[in-house]
Amino acid sequence: xxxxxxxxxxxxxxxxxxxxxxxxxxxxxxxxxxxxxxxxxxxxxxxxxxxxxxxxxxxxxxxxxxxxxxxxxxxxxxxxxxxxxxxxxxxxxxxxxxxxxxxxxxxxxxxxxxxxxxxxxxxxxxxxxxxxxxxxxxxxxxxxxxxxxxxxxxxxxxxxxxxxxxxxxxxxxxxxxxxxxxxxxxxxxxxxxxxxxxxxxxxxxxxxxxxxxxxxxxxxxxxxxxxxxxxxxxxxxxxxxxxxxxxx
Length: 248
Ligand code: 13P
Known about the structure:
Helix content is 41%, strand content 15%. The chain is built from ten helices and eight strands. Helix 1 (16-28) runs parallel beside helix 10 and helix 7 runs parallel beside helix 8 (178-195). The chain binds 1,3-dihydroxyacetonephosphate. 1,3-dihydroxyacetonephosphate binds next to strand 8.
């Protein structure tokens, strides 16, 4: 049985002061929390997280990693640099990166490979756009995105986390219904099972306007192993309420 994993994606939000108070509020509410918890923060704040969260029940991670090992790649952050800050997770292939930075399936797969080689768990995001859903392409799109990562990572695939984030639900207030989420999660689970005999240990998270009001129904689905949460993870009471739900 996989314990639930709840990950806050802070995106490009925060400041030293705001992060410190958010983390303090979260830590003070962790006593009854039994699910796994992490926050993925801007790289500029990883050093701060290392100080605030080392040895705590809240893990931390990055939001992206370079597909290169080192060298003349201005602005990039390598997996070994993330390793210096003892990060546990790294989001790869978030729809905002696929969209605004033209990240391809193959690039995302290489990023996952870089993270795994550094002992960092990649949280691989997949998801269809509104137009793709309306065209009946949802399954084909998420399977294509995951297939690239499976192809590049072979037997290590059981070490990843997958996040199903329908693009039309990210930051829009629209959420997949629990049935829609379960349907896609089951497809992803079957694809992982075909690739690895250890696929059952892979957590498949749902992301896209998950909040304190809809988390319970989504998390009740058999193949929804947790959440990747944007806006609602920036408010301590909301995030803590979702962590409680995931700890039941
Ligand atoms: P929201 O929860 O703000 O919709 O963002 C979801 C997301 O993109 C998490 O990675």
